[in-house]
Amino acid sequence: MTSATEPAFELLRFTAAPLGDGFVVLDLEGRFVGRGRFARRPALVVERDDDAGSLELTPLHAETEDGHRWRATYAVPVADLEGARFGLAVRGTLLELPPPDRRSGAGAEGPGDRSAAVAHEDEARGQAAARAEAAERRASAAERRIEILERAVRELEQRVMAAEEEAGAAQDELVAAEARAAAARELAAEVEVRAEEADARVERTAQRAAEAEDRAEQAERRAAAAEERVEEATERATAAEQRAQAARQRAKAADERIQAGEERIQLAGERDPDAPPAGPPPARHVARRPAATAKPVPRAGPGPERWLAVLALLLVVAVVVVLALDRI
After folding, report:
1. How far apart are CA 234 and CA 228, in angstroms?
2. Burial code of 147-178, b = ≥16 C-beta within 10 A, e = fewer?
3. 282-315, pLDDT tens digit by residue?
4. Distances (CA, A) of 30 to 5, 11, 81, 213, 287
5. For residues 85 and 1, is the Cβ–Cβ distance under 8 A?
6. Which residues, other chains included, contact 319 with Cβ-Cβ below 8 Å and sequence gap of 6+?
7. Considering Cα of 220, then 222, then 223, then 224, what sign does the dihedral take?
8. Which of 3, 39, 59, 316 is placed for a possible disulfide with 96 were both Cys, Cβ 3.0 to 4.6 Å?
């Protein structure tokens, strides 16, 4: 227990009287030296020897007389008085106090002391009842808070259960979403493979188209050359036809002259069988006799130029059919 370096409090009286219900009333009276106003009322400190700690008690009643005389009443459990040390806490300073003087009963007290003790006892009992009532109110408020907290806990449990259910549903949705994502990835891979195959097919088709275009160009060039050859063959065939027509006309004219000569010879023989035949001189007659007895000259058939023109036309038709099939 510490004490002030200079006495700031003069102890006049420090007594203990039984209160009942396990409490003792401590009356403290003295003078403060050079005291001003207290920021808080001085507290009684009770230090116990059983390592149970210390008690800091506020006064049940305190009053000041003559500006310096100070009196206060404290209520302390009886069990805390045995072997305890006392002090007065004033403005951060702990002033050491001697053990209180104990008063055992009415025989040791005068009438004034007895009435003061009764007054103190009544006051202490009122203070204790007030504290008990305040404690009951605090307990009731605590029970209400406990009920509120229990309701809050139940609500929180319900919310936790709902949150767990939502979390389970969200987990199921997540699993389903992951499955859909895996299926989408597989589909995307399949589509990519199909796209690559389609690109390859497009490339092959483009190559075949290019080859077909090359073949078409070559066929067109061959067709153009064939057309030129057909035109040339047609021209040659036309010229040959014209020459054949002229030859047929000449052959026809020769046949007509031969027939006219034979008719004249026949008429001359009928007129004079013994007479020499009339007509041209013997030399010319001898030269033309074989012609009179020769068979008529057959008409000339189609020449090689005509057949060449027909073959050229067939070639052109074949080229056109091949181009049409390539384009299909």
Report:
1. 10
2. eeeeeeeeeeeeeeeeeeeeeeeeeeeeeeee
3. 544 444 455 445 455 555 566 677 788 888 888 8
4. 18, 4, 21, 130, 199
5. yes
6. 219, 222, 223, 226
7. positive
8. 3
Dihedral sign, CA of 145, 146, 149, 150? negative
- Give the pair of three-digit tokens for residue 121: 């006892």
Q: What is the 3-state secondary structure (H, E, C) of 271-305?
A: HCCCCCCCCCCHHHHHHHHHHHHCCCCCCCCCCHH
Using a cut of 0.90, tell me whether the model's pTM lies above it.
Answer: no
Residue type present at position 252 = K
pLDDT band for position 122 (cuts 50, 70, 90): low
Strands, E assignment, the chain: 9-20, 23-32, 43-47, 54-57, 61-65, 69-77, 85-90, 93-97, 101-102
The distance from CA 231 to its chain's CA centroid, rounded to whole angstroms, is 74
- DSSP letter, residue 99: P
Q: Which of 326, 303, 64 is nearest to 213 (CA)?
A: 326
